[in-house]
Structures are given as C-alpha cells and as structure tokens.
Write a structure and sequence with these properties.
The complex is a heterodimer of chains A (276) and B (346).
Chain A: H1 2-30, H2 34-40, H3 44-77, H4 83-95, H5 98-109, H6 116-121, H7 130-155, H8 159-166, H9 171-199, H10 203-208, H11 219-226, H12 231-260
Helix pairs in contact in A: 2-12, 3-7, 3-9, 3-11, 4-7, 7-9, 8-9, 9-12, 11-12
Chain B: E1 4-12, E2 17-24, E3 27-31, H1 38-46, E4 53-58, E5 61-65, E6 70-71, E7 79-82, H2 94-101, H3 106-112, H4 128-141, E8 146-150, H5 158-174, E9 179-183, H6 186-192, E10 195-200, E11 203-208, H7 210-215, H8 220-225, E12 229-237, E13 243-247, E14 252-254, E15 263-266, E16 272-274, E17 283-296, E18 299-304, E19 307-312, H9 313-319, E20 326-332, E21 336-339
Parallel strand pairs in B: 3-9, 3-10, 7-8, 8-9
Antiparallel strand pairs in B: 1-2, 1-4, 4-5, 5-6, 10-11, 12-13, 12-15, 13-14, 15-21, 16-20, 17-18, 17-20, 18-19
Helix pairs in contact in B: 2-3, 2-4, 3-4
The chains are: A mainly alpha (276), B alpha+beta (346).
Chain lengths: 276, 346
C-alpha cells in the first residue's frame, strides 16, 4: 500500500516537472489563433529581425568553426604549461553574465575602448553595427562549440592519426581524412549548441550593438521591443525561435549519436543504428 | 633486403630509459614483459616517437640522427606498422583502408590476403583474424622497407591465434623485407623469428636465435622467459670433485657447470616423471606430490614442488598420474644450466 502511494507520488512529481517545462511553450502556440500569428510573419519588424538574426548567426558560426576548430584540436592534442588555464579561459565567456560580456566588448572594442582607437585609425567603428552583433554572438557562443570540439577530439583514438602518418599521409591530410571525420558527430553537436546559444543571445548584443530595426535588432531583441506593443508579433517570433531551437536540439542528439558509434554503417535518427 | 639499424637509440620512459642498438635484416623478435619499452622501439623506428639521442637508419637513408638533428617524419619513412589492436579506420571500408596506403594497389593486396569479399565491410563488423589481415594488407600496400608488428597475436583468442600464427609464419617467410615484431610470448617469437632480443626495462639482456636463448640463457630472467624452471640455491662442491647447487630446501642438485651461480634453469622437456625412485646416480631427483596437471594437445605439464615437467599425454596415461599423487621428478646434471641470479624484472 505504502509502496504504491510512493510510486504514485513519484509519477505525480515527474508530471509536474514536465508540465512546468512544457507549459510556456504550449502557451505561445495556443495563446492567439494560428492565423493571426502567421499574419505577423509578414510584419516588417518580424521580417527584419529574422534576416538580422540569420545573417549574424551564420557569419558568427562560420567564424567560430574556422577559429574554434584548430584551437580545440590544439587544446585536445597538445600538453603544454598552462594548458588547463587555457582551457578554463576559453570557457570563461560561458559563465560570464551576458551584460558583463557586452560591457567587456564595449570596453575592448568601443570608441574609447582598449583597441577602439586603433580600429578608429582604420576607419572602423564597431559598436551599434551589424558586425557588433556578430562579434557579440561569436563571443558568447564560441565556448560551447570549443568545449564540445575538445571533447570530440580527445575521444578519438590517438592511434588512428598515428596509423595515418605511417601510411604516408602528412599532418594536414591526416587531419582532414581521419581526425575530422571521426570527430564529425561531436563537432556538429557542438555547433548546434553554439548556434542555439547565439540565436538566443540578448544581453551582450543589446549592450554592444543596441536594438536598431533592420540593423542590429535580432529576434530576441525584437521580441522584447514588441511584446508590449504588438503581442502577436512577439508570439510569432517566439514560435519561429522555438521551431529553430527544436531543430537544433535534434541535430545535437543526432550528432552525439554519430560520435558514439563512428563505425556504424549509416548514422540514423535518435542514436538507433542500423548495424550492431 | 634492406637493413634497418638502431644505434644507441635512447628514449626516456616513465621510470627508466630505453637504450638499445639493434640491426634488423631478417625477421627479428623483441620479447619482454609489458612495459619494457618494446612498442616504443617500434614507434621510434616508425617516427611516431622522437628519441632523445642516437641514430636510426635504413641502409644509407638516415631517419633519425640526434647529433645532427635529423628527424624524418613518419609519412616519409616507408614503414609498415601493424598496431596491436590494428588501428583500422572505423569510418572507412576495408577497401578504403587499404587504398589509404596506396590508391592503385588495393586489388592486389585484397586478393593476396583473401579479403576481397570483405572490401565493402567496415572494420567494426570484422573478426579478429580478418582485422589482422586487413591491417597487414594496409601496411604492406604502403610498400614498406621494414615491417613492424606490435604484439601481432595478442588481440586474438587462443583458437584463432594458432591459425593466424601459421598464416603469419608463411607470410613472413615469403616477404622480402626485414621484419621487427614485439611480443611477450617466447613461443610466438620462436615460431615467427630467426633472431630474438630479450628487452627488459629498456635494455637488451640477450640476443640470439631461439635455440641459443634456450641453450644458454644469459640470466634467470631470460631463462624463466623461455620457459625454464628456476631453482634457487647456494653453490656447493663435494669432496669427489662434483659440483652442485644446494637448494634452499636442502636438496643437492648435481650440475654440469660449477660457477658461482645461485640459480639453476631446468627446462620442462629435460625432466622425467616416475612413480618410483629412479635408481640412477647421474639423476637429480626431487620427490613430491603432484600439484597440477595441464594438458596441451598431445603434451602434458606436470608440476611437482618447484618443477614443471613436460611429458607426452601417452606417458601421463601409462603412469596413471593424478593430482595429489606422490611422484618423482628427475633430471640429469647435463639438463641444468647455471644462470646469473638476476631474476625478475627488478
């Protein structure tokens, strides 16, 4: 009897947790009629925010991939004095409050900032431009990618690149034909995480880039700007972000399942592999 | 055939320094306990480990020279290294693995190793024996000047091992390139190589043919590694000019050589087992209860006290030997070898 009651209580607690986590998401989709929300997708504020978000995210993620991958590989394969310090520093932006990150970017790259005057000399002024959005997104999102990339590179058997070298492939060919394909799943997962974080970026962006429609106003900034004026527009943008985030989460799971079974013939959804 | 030479090659390892000179122009086996630095030797030749000093060369091509600062990277050394667990690329098919070494030679090597039917399979779905064939095909497709085999039989189960050892024996006999293999199993080394080096804590204790090592083990460690029984005792000279060793338990063993050795090596095949005391004065006899009997094919190993004898299963049946039974292990003075007492790995 008591055991049964305990089991029921257990299930009830779990159900409350699920309800709590899902309720806001459900509410966004059922608050207004889908028709009115869909209408808002042609609202210029929504369209502009969507374009700014996608453009800055894609450029920021490309930069993260380009700079983060070699950095992660170095941190995963070389041991040098200060190695753990370097890894910790790379992860720092992850735990930094976004407002602090934004202020830091202003202090570093702003007009009066550390590097601001040198940038000024080249006629470059970063703050409150679309480039500033990209910089802010790259700053807060890159640690997520780099962390996951380090883990993926560390998880690959060090004998495989060694075998590649003895078979006549130099370091570059080894990296592209052995190291990268083996770490691929983890890298994709890391990029999905970093993309999701960048897409939701709010604090650092508003400090460093402001919220100018069609220039620096990303979807989260536009949601904040619109929610007391046009709630339907805010809902529409939220709906879009939920769908994109869900897609990214799915990508993350698939990526991680690839990483776990690199020898399986063909990767498939949800970690279910076709070969044993 | 090329000759690969190592001269005073030194590699610092965790608790000791690997330091050896070695010349490989046929099939050579390095044997020794795990952690003796055997794999490091292979990695140094392949260029995966950079020694602190010394010189590694292949005929007149210098691969490493500590003094002159020469270090040829692995991809320019033409070395065929077969890793202990094969290190096949899991994301590539069998064919792609072999093609990785040389694009146009895949067919030839797939056929030669009888793995053509597996060409589309991924390494993950292969058996141990098949994996080894792929690894060998891939290493040889590199057209190497030396073949390096790291514990080629240790990843296989006992049944597959016998089969693969025979295959490997045939392959090495046909190959026209020098081969260096490392193993911790003297029998495997003796079956595959014409020369054996015993590596202990980074140093070569002894080199020679398998028969040399058995006939004259340099020390107690080599003797035990080649399968001998070791008896510890004190040197003893009797009044009638025979020499011997007084074992720690008080038994006097007559030996053919009487130096100051305190360790005696007796090989299992030099020991006879009988159920009654053999009346032969030339014999050393150790009586005792049989503590273990292990059958291996048509041979049986019988343990009495400190000695393990190898006899035929026929004799085992004829004598009706049982564990716990009282019996006599006897061996001739000429069946003993006195060895320096440097035992173990320490």
């Amino acid at each position: 009897m008591r055991r049964k009651a305990l089991a029921l209580a257990w299930i009830a607690v779990s159900l409350i947790t699920f309800a709590f986590l899902l309720l806001p998401i459900v509410a966004i989709f059922v608050h207004t009629s889908p028709g009115r929300v869909l209408d808002q997708l042609s609202n210029p504020v929504v369209k502009d925010a969507f374009v700014v978000s996608i453009k800055t995210s894609v450029i920021a993620q490309a930069l993260i991939l380009l700079f983060g991958t070699p950095t992660a590989f170095l941190l995963a394969t070389r041991r040098f004095p200060g190695h753990s310090l370097a890894v910790t520093l790379v992860e720092l932006p992850l735990v930094l409050p976004p407002a602090v990150a934004g202020l830091g970017l202003l202090a570093a790259l702003g007009r009066e900032g550390l590097l601001g005057s040198s940038l000024d000399a080249f006629g470059v002024s970063l703050p409150f431009t679309q480039t500033a959005v990209t910089v802010a997104v790259a700053y807060v999102a890159s640690p997520l990618y780099i962390r996951q990339a380090i883990a993926s590179f560390e998880a690959t058997d060090p004998q495989l690149p060694a075998a590649s070298r003895t078979l006549g492939a130099g370091p570059v060919r080894t990296f592209f034909r052995v190291v990268l394909p083996l770490a691929r799943g983890g890298l994709i997962a890391g990029l999905a995480l970093s993309f999701a974080r960048g897409l939701g970026e709010f604090g650092a962006t508003i400090m460093f880039a402001g919220s100018l429609q069609a220039v620096t106003q990303t979807l989260p900034l536009a949601i904040y700007a619109e929610f007391d004026q046009n709630f339907d527009a805010a809902l529409a943008m939220s709906g879009v972000l939920i769908l994109v985030s869900a897609a990214l989460l799915l990508t993350l799971r698939i990526g991680l399942s690839w990483q776990r079974s690199p020898s399986s013939k063909s990767p498939s959804l949800f970690g279910l592999s076709s070969s044993a | 055939m090329a000759t690969v030479s190592l001269e005073q090659v030194a590699v610092p390892l965790r608790t000791f320094q690997l330091c050896l000179s070695l010349s490989v122009d046929s099939t050579v086996a390095l044997i020794g306990p795990s952690g003796a630095g055997k794999s490091t030797v292979l990695n140094a030749i392949a260029g995966l480990v950079k020694p602190a000093a010394g010189r590694i060369s292949c005929d007149d091509e210098v691969w490493f020279d500590g003094e002159r600062g020469v270090f040829v990277p692995p991809e320019r050394r033409r070395v065929g290294l077969v890793f202990q667990d094969y290190a096949l690329f899991p994301h590539l098919t069998v064919r792609q693995n072999v093609e990785y070494a040389q694009r146009n030679a895949a067919d030839e090597y797939l056929d030669r190793f009888g793995i053509r039917h597996l060409e589309r399979a991924r390494p993950g779905s292969l058996s141990g024996g098949e994996r080894q064939r792929v690894a060998l095909a891939r290493a040889l497709a590199r057209d190497p000047e030396i073949l390096l085999l790291d514990e080629p039989l240790s990843a296989l189960d006992a049944h597959t091992k016998i089969e693969v050892r025979a295959e490997l024996q045939q392959l090495l006999a046909d190959l026209e390139i020098p081969t260096l293999l490392v193993t911790h199993d003297f029998e495997d080394a003796a079956a595959l190589a014409s020369h054996i080096g015993v590596l202990v804590e980074g140093e070569l204790r002894q080199t020679g043919s398998p028969a040399d090592l058995v006939a004259e083990p340099a020390d107690a460690f080599v003797a035990s590694f080649t399968g001998a029984n070791l008896l510890r005792g004190q040197p003893y000279w009797a009044s009638d000019n025979t020499s011997g060793v007084l074992l720690d338990d008080g038994t006097l063993v007559v030996t053919s050589d009487g130096d100051e050795a305190v360790m005696l090596a007796v090989y299992p095949w030099d020991i006879t087992i009988s159920t009654s005391h053999p009346d032969d004065s030339a014999m050393n006899v150790i009586p005792g209860a049989i503590s273990a009997i292990t059958e291996l094919g048509n041979r049986a190993r019988v343990t009495i006290g400190p000695l393990t004898a190898e006899i035929t299963v026929d004799s085992l049946r004829r004598l009706g030997l049982q564990v716990g039974q009282h019996a006599y292990a006897s061996f001739k003075a000429t069946g003993t070898r006195a060895v320096a007492g440097k035992g173990g790995t320490g």
